[in-house]
Amino acid sequence: MEKRALGEIRVHQRQDGLRTYSLRFRVNGKRRSITLGTDAEGWSDRRAERKLEDVLAEIRVGMWRPPAPPEASDEREMTFHEFASRWWAARKGELRHKTQLDYEWQLQKHLLPFFADYPVSEIDLPLVERYREDKLIERERVRAAAEAGHPIRDKRGQRRMPMSNGSINKTLVTLAQILESAVERGLVDSNPASGRRRRLKTSKPVRRHLEADDLKELLSVAAEMDRTSPRYRIGRRPMIAVMAKSGLRVTEMCMLRWRDVDVHHQRLIIGHAKTDAGVREVDLSLDVMEELMTWRASCKTSDPDGFVFATVSGRPRDKDNVRQRVLGPVLRKANALREQRGLAPIAQVSPHALRRTYISLLIEAGAPLPYVMRQVGHEDSRTTLEVYAQVQQRLNRDQVHQAFDDLLASAGEQAEVPTEGREKMSSSTVSASFGDAEFSVTEGSEDTRGPRKWSTEAK
Hints:
The chain is mainly α. It folds into 3 domains: 7-60; 78-198, Tyrosine recombinase, N-terminal domain (DNA polymerase, domain 1, Orthogonal Bundle); 212-394, Intergrase catalytic core (hpI Integrase, Chain A, Orthogonal Bundle). The protein has helices at residues 45-60, 80-91, 97-115, 125-147, 165-184, 212-228, 236-246, 250-254, 286-298, 319-340, 351-364, 369-376, 381-414, 419-434; strands at 7-13, 19-27, 30-38, 261-262, 267-270, 280-283. A 3-stranded antiparallel beta sheet has the order 1-2-3, with helices on one face. A 3-stranded antiparallel beta sheet has the order 4-5-6. Helix 3 crosses helix 5 and helix 11 (351-364) crosses helix 13. The longest helix has 34 residues, at 381-414. The radius of gyration is 34 Å and the shape is globular. The relative contact order is 0.05.
């Protein structure tokens, strides 16, 4: 009896939300597979089942043949979609997961919807300029709809936010990278997306960090909110303390587990980070260790694999949760109290501002720059040096202000110098300035109400 041909349908859920359908079966003892397509192309479970039935029927009667490979086409006729897909497939493996998601967001949400069907050889400067103009028009449309109280939402129902100049520039940089590859292959003569003229003007973001007294106030308010919270304590104070006194990135703090807290050596073990330099051991002060141990004693569980700052369900927090449920409420409460005392509010505080606060405090305490870089996991010294310059500017400012105050304070003593002494000082000063030149007060100089006129005729 002939053995019945069998096969299966395989469905792959992609990160962009699409589902890819494929078939897997055996022919003459060899495993074969066929990719059918995505649900966006009309494939469904039912359609895939019918296709599998057709394939198995052909196998049983010996008529099945492998699909012919696609005919090689002239690369100059490739669409941007085809070329960008190849470019991305070749580069994707070199990048970290979060970077991959960022590139895929740029391609799927912005570049492909505009350039997908254009042949690569036809993408020129006017087309790139039109893409940039369309993004600016789209931004104004999203902004106007939000101001009118009818925000535009995406397919998932999430509110769309207007793109900043920096985000638009980011997509232009990615477009330039793709077209640069096309230039190297000889598909286009020049790269129409390269050059600073294609970019929109952006303002340098203000990088803030807290002063020591502002940090102390935030910690005090956070502790009070934890103590009086009607619900369970979420650890506002220890979270702020860890970010501001150890320099962890917000994602590093969210993913921190109790096994990463080395109590004996007074340090944190960061095993997964944004960069290779981010994988590190962070020295902790006794103050931070006490914060962590106090928090651990108040937690319901101290499982070594548990997250240090978990949610009620035991899952790790994310950066949005920290901003909205930790920093935001604490900052609003602190500023309300400051307003009652007639003090200026503390400027907007982000998790990264707390990280920069730690860097500034280390530098002000005299820590060497290489040690600071190792503590915070910086590969590039530019960020560390930027904070260093700000700290030095503040220290120099304090010194200059103190010297200025001392100068004003000494002005009262100089006012007591006798008239004769002032005349002698004035004569010696002018003599030192003009040498042997003669100065004289013009006629009518006894009237001290007007400006003096100096004559510097040499003898």
